[in-house]
Amino acid sequence: MRHEIEVELINEQGMHTRPAKLFVETAVKFTAEIEVSYDGLSANGKSIMGLLGLLAYRGCRLVISATGEDAKPAVEALSGLVNSGFNE
Amino acid sequence: MSIRNVYLFGQGVVPGIVIGRAHLIQGANQYAWTQRHIPPEECAIEIDRLHQAVETSWQQLEDIKEQLAGDSKDPGHILEAHQMMLRDQDLQSSFEKIIVSERINAEWAVLRTLGAWEERFLRIENEYIRERFSDLRFICTRLLRTLSGQSPNEVIAPPPDAVIIATELSPADTILLGRNAVAGLITVRGGKTSHTVIIAKAFEIPTVVGVSRAFEHVGEGDLVVLNGHKGEIIVNPDAKLVSVYRTQSHRMIAKDQALLEKCHLPGETADGTPVRVLANLDFADEIVKAKGHGAEGIGLYRTEFLFMVHEKDIADEQVHFQDVKELLERWPGGGPVTLRTFDLGGDKFPLTSQLAREANPALGQRSLRLALAHPHIFKAQLRGFLRAYSLFPDIDLRIMFPLVSSVREFQTAREILCECYRELSIEGHEIPDTFKIGAMLELPAALLIADMLSRECQFFSIGSNDLIQYSLAVDRGNEKVAHMYRGLHPGILRMIQHAIRAANDAGIDISLCGDLATEPIPALIMLGLGLRNFSMPPVFIPYAKDFLRTVQLAEIEELTTHAMTLPCADDIEAFMRASLGNRLQDTFWSEISEK
């Protein structure tokens, strides 16, 4: 199973340390493999350094894709987190 | 014997005045870490060392986190993020790859990885992203300390009441320092939004950042005065300065109360010369504070925040009408209310922020230029102003254009305002024609043609911040040149003198509304040059009024005449300090900050 969604970073700080941490904390709850891509780069959605390394700021559009049994709920949870602005 | 009274400047980010002994903390790049090549068979050993260091460092952060438990200040999530970074698989595998492929020891691998990331992050022109890199540097520094067998608590264990000097501080270090009751923090790197500043604020540790020359001028154990209001550091102050600063922090608290009680007396000098002390405001509801602090009018009402809040509907005059109506209905009358049309940089302007960036925004299409380029937004604001005014016709309303550069430009802006007035009259609004239209003088060329502008304008307001920046070509946010930002530069004073004379000759009001109005020495010189209106954040007003009552106009005029003959800002400041003596030391006017 594979699911994919495009989201926009709406929080002021973009993929800063705290948002990246929240993203990883959510991602590791799922067994699916998670990949986040932006601007030709892609990162392991369960690696904080990978996410920070995307250098994505406010307004950037990210593609979150998940492969595995729980891909659908994983993509839903992660896109929900991004769309909430990481509760900032 | 060390040199006395060395002044250093930075950005004050957490207010407060402290005195303590300097304690220097070195960062990742300052230590001579052992860097060596290794034979292939040792790669496994180095990888193992690295893994152990990761776990030890992880545990150190865990211990700090536990110490924090039960503390209401909760920066724990930052520490958790650092722990996550330490154990990150991507990071670990890049360490391992470098150890194996380049045959280098663990310390070197950490430094190499840090360098590679640094290159990547620093290409980006986004403050948040750049600061993100410091998180990686913090964990790498911690790893290096652990690899070299140092206990981190030993590294940063400062003597009590120390003033910490560091290139930068990790949040974890800042927390430990806060718990060790350090007196203050000074860092070489800047950045108001870093995690470290947030923690320093939570612990209320007075902090100055961006002090680029700190390590050159401060030695271990040097006595240091840190002024977190002004972003000022004095290294090895003499006994006199120490006693001044020591008493200052105690007396500030008591004096605050005493001054508030008499802040409603009219502003005047000791000989009874009236001096109007006005308020600078950013929001309509601040008018309560302005009244409470004895403001005799609003010298500057900024509208920039409104633009940021109402990004989408900023061309709607109703937004502007509502905002100004809220301001005017709370103003008890008496004294002017000065509205400034929007003073935004192109990068902050809703319509243009998506467009190509200007190479040099400070010299680009900003402020009034932007307004004239977008007349429908400019008119929405002006119409909103006038409609609100029609409800409160007795108020002494003034409309001011920022960054005026020429007579023609002022006339163009005024014509648009008059057009709005005519349109509204035809639409049936009854608007008195007694409001005044004026210019903000903040470009050197505008001050030099103040006599010509005075025939067109009904009042002037000097914006000292931009004036100094443009005249001296100094960005005061740039730590390398911030010390050259001097309002007492004779060139600045001469331009202001010319403008004050022109206004007084023409019989129009002139006020000063930049930061210069909040500093006692420059403000006194302005008084001596003939200025009678000062506008400042409300919290300064009681102090300014109190200080003005200690000086005689004739005396200040005499001092100013001499000051204007001196060639350098330092000479002028020294002369004024010497002449005013204790009166200046007794005032805390410039030492207070927004509460």
- Shape label of chain A: globular
Name the beta content range of chain A.
25-35%
Number of strands of chain B: 16
Distance between the termini of chain B: 39 Å
CATH class identity of the largest domain in chain B: Alpha Beta
Average pLDDT level of chain A: 91
Integer count of domains of chain B: 2
CATH domain topology of chain A: Histidine-containing Protein, Chain: A
Assign the CATH architecture of the largest domain in chain B. Answer: Alpha-Beta Barrel
The largest interface is: A-B, 20 and 21 residues
Shape of chain B: globular
Q: How many structural units, i.e. domains of chain A?
A: 1
Biggest sheet overview of chain B: 8 strands, mixed
The helix content of chain A, as a percent range, equals: 25-40%
In CATH, what is the homologous superfamily of chain A?
A: HPr-like
Instruction: Provide the CATH superfamily of the largest domain in chain B.
Output: Phosphoenolpyruvate-binding domains
CATH topology name of the largest domain in chain B: TIM Barrel
Strand order of the largest sheet of chain B: 1-8-7-3-4-5-6-2
Instruction: Identify the CATH architecture of chain A.
Output: 2-Layer Sandwich
Quote the distance from N terminus to C terminus of chain A: 32 Å
Q: Give the topology string of chain A: H per helix, E per strand.
A: EHEEHEH
What does this structure look like?
- The complex is a heterodimer of chains A (88) and B (595).
- Chain A is of the alpha+beta class and 88 residues long.
- Chain A has one domain: Histidine-containing Protein, Chain: A.
- Chain A contains three helices and four strands; from the N terminus they run E-H-E-E-H-E-H.
- Chain A has helices at 17-27, 48-52, 71-83, and strands at 2-8, 33-38, 41-44, 61-67.
- Chain A has a four-stranded antiparallel sheet with strand order 1-4-2-3.
- Chain B is α/β, with parallel strands linked by helices and 595 residues long.
- Chain B has two domains: 1-237, PtsI, HPr-binding domain (Enzyme I, Chain A, domain 2, Orthogonal Bundle), CATH 1.10.274.10; 250-354 and 366-591, Phosphoenolpyruvate-binding domains (TIM Barrel).
- In chain B, 48% of the residues lie in helices and 13% in strands.
- Chain B has 25 helices and 16 strands.
- Chain B has an eight-stranded mixed sheet with strand order 1-8-7-3-4-5-6-2.
- In chain B, strand 7 (223-227) and strand 8 form a beta hairpin.
- The longest helix of chain B is centred in the N-terminal third of the chain and has 26 residues, at 43-68.
- Chain B starts with 5 loop residues before the first strand and ends in a 10-residue tail after the last helix.
